[in-house]
Amino acid sequence: MREDSRSSPLESCGCCWSRRRFLAGCAGCAGAAAPRAAFGARPSRRKLRLHLLFAVHAPVQDRPTWPHMGFDFRPVMQRIRSELVEACPEFEFMFSTAADPEAAAKIIKEGPSESVDGYIVYQLNNWVEVVQTCAATGKPVLFLDFPYGGSGGFLLFLASLLRSHRSNVGFVASSGFDDHVAAVKCFEVIQNGGSPADFVAATERERKRHTPPPGNLSTASDPVALLPADQWRKHFRQSKILAVGGGSRRGGEAVERELGTRVVFVEFGELDQAWKNADKDQAGEIADRWQEEATKVEGVSREELEKSASMYLAQKAMIERHGANAISIHCLGGFYGGHIHAYPCLGFVELSNQGLIGGCECDIDSAATMVALTAMTQGRPGFISDPVIDTAKRRIIYAHCVAPNKPFGPKGPANDFEIFTHSEDRKGAAVRSIFPTGYMLTTLKFGPDRKQVVLHQAKSIDNIWEDRACRTKLCAEPIGDIERLFTEWDRWGWHRVTFFGDLKEPVYTLAEMLGWQVIEEA
Hints:
Blueprint: H1 19-26, H2 36-39, E1 48-55, H3 74-87, E2 91-98, H4 101-110, E3 118-123, H5 131-135, E4 141-145, H6 151-164, E5 169-172, H7 177-185, H8 188-191, H9 196-210, H10 232-237, E6 240-244, H11 249-259, E7 262-266, H12 268-277, H13 280-293, E8 296-297, H14 302-322, E9 326-329, H15 331-336, H16 345-352, E10 357-360, H17 364-376, E11 383-390, E12 395-400, E13 417-422, E14 427-433, E15 440-447, E16 452-463, E17 472-479, H18 489-492, E18 496-500, H19 504-514, E19 517-520
Parallel strand pairs: 1-2, 1-3, 3-4, 4-5, 6-7, 6-9, 8-13, 9-10, 16-19
Antiparallel strand pairs: 11-12, 11-18, 12-17, 13-14, 15-16, 15-18, 16-17
């Protein structure tokens, strides 16, 4: 079920924002001018000049990444330009697009930098490095996320900037465009004689003011049957992860050293050959079952389902051949490069429903996290995701194109799931799992090389449908300080692994057993 039938500005396609809602939101922006008395009003000789840079690969997306192949940013950028000019007549705006640091540096160098009072950077695509160049000028910078478009780059870049440029970079991660406008209004602090640090403080006040208070965080009863702690190490040492087509050798060594779990690196060719050798009749039967069990199959042909079923059989064959209980595949590089011919997503769901591990993107640390916690909980699967933070609703959204549909373990109930194409490239077959709501979630990631675990908890609230970004989007309300959730992404990467259940205490027990440190990021 969708969280809310009313589209908010930045959750929609960007072409259907409500002008009435937008302007109504601006009524609260006047609070950003509050520091005027503190800093002393100064007569302005000219309008404040703000240079807005869109961090985007291309006006129409030309590669498989968030939001998705073929996404048209032109109406989004036009809407942002026109609405900001209308909502903030006290400022003069300049607009540019930049796809890399060199382009950003050229724009800043060739522009009238001496008369630019501040920068606004909209992170429309992941991994487009523009904000760092603006921050290095020392001028006030407002960093804004385009949800489900640039959220990964936003979180990783922001966490790093909070360490290196905390005094001149303010930020907003919100689906509400009025929150963005309120932050832009904070440049009035500079107009009234304030410093970049005063501007950052004003954006923080506005961000917190626009973030709702915590809701009802009570959760449904969900007792977790834990394996006795004295048996954990034995199960870790009996586990084996197959890393197909990539993964960090150093990370694998750390997993083996710290947990005792073996990591075996395998080439794509072995998986591809197993896929070719898969029994086609058996693959057809599995495809039949998926079609029957899925509540929706959209954009995926019967042929593609059978190819995905053969990929599942290939994964299972490799696990059995190597005596493993986990497989993690460099799926994006493998599929984009033609090394594999079907996404492993549906196969990962099948494996998790059997108490085995299917890990995305050959992320060794996340796979090790899944192995350990699935063993501890006697079968509960982990959900690797690319999170998005939305302060407008005090939510974190765990997004990926594959997710288990038996979150309480192989013997637990199954939730509905839908089959779509993989989101970024609109090819293959992927999964939208519609998770149960009202439950405690524990989200974490192991860092064996540093002997640490990063962890936060949240309550499952809803399942969001949004065509941008990955198919599964489990929406949750963080338990704790949502502001702290912005601080660790540069150190830990974007991935997190979510489990149903209150696993905080056993994670601390495990960390103490291993001599590791737990970092609570909320």
